[in-house]
Amino acid sequence: MRSRQIADNPKTFIIILDSGEEILSSLKSFAKEQRLSGSSFKAIGALSQAELGWFNWETKEYQTAVNLKEQIELLSLIGDITLQGSEPQVHAHLVVGRSDGTAHGGHLLSATVRPTCELILTESPAHLQKQIAPESGIALIRF
């Protein structure tokens, strides 16, 4: 993972992930290293694997919808990073494209980069940072 701060107000970074890097763990490490309390991001690239999920309201857990183990385009990745206690939590949704032109989307459970993921991350102002909602267990904007 390579990163560079590209703006100060709001604090904005470009993050480049390379082949073999896992997106969620890389973003958690970056947020911890930069001491980010809240931020949002967007990305494009390509992957060798992606597990997508959906939120089951009854169980309050994410369940696997599709697990793709093939070369796929990362068409869109958007999400945010919040703190749960002192630990960063990544919440992201993505859309991927397969070689036949079909697309799959959902909650990001795991994804491995191949060959690159180009991500822009922007720190959120304090009044827009998310908090865990007790009724769902999901980080939501509360103001």
Major sheet: size, sense and barrel closure?
A: 7 strands, antiparallel
Task: Give the terminus-to-terminus CA distance.
Answer: 34 Å
- Which percent range describes the beta-strand content? over 45%
Order of helices and strands: EEHEEEEEEE
* Class by SSE composition: mainly beta
The backbone outline, from C-alpha atoms, is globular
Task: Kindly provide the radius of gyration, computed on alpha-carbon positions and rounded to a whole number of angstroms.
Answer: 15 Å
Query: Considering DSSP H and I runs of 4 or more, what fraction of the residues is helical?
Result: under 10%
Give a count of the beta strands, DSSP E runs of length 2 or more: 9
Described by its quaternary structure, the protein is single chain
Number of helices: 1
Rounded mean pLDDT is 93
| Model regions low in confidence, pLDDT < 50 over at least 5 residues | none
Q: Could you write a compact summary of the structure shown?
A:
By secondary structure, the protein is mainly beta. It has one helix at 23-34, and strands spanning 2-8, 11-18, 38-56, 61-68, 72-84, 87-97, 103-123, 130-132, 139-141. It has one helix and nine strands; from the N terminus they run ββαβββββββ.
Write the layout of secondary structure elements.
Layout: E1 2-8, E2 11-18, H1 23-34, E3 38-56, E4 61-68, E5 72-84, E6 87-97, E7 103-123, E8 130-132, E9 139-141
Antiparallel strand pairs: 1-2, 2-7, 3-4, 3-5, 3-7, 5-6, 6-7, 8-9
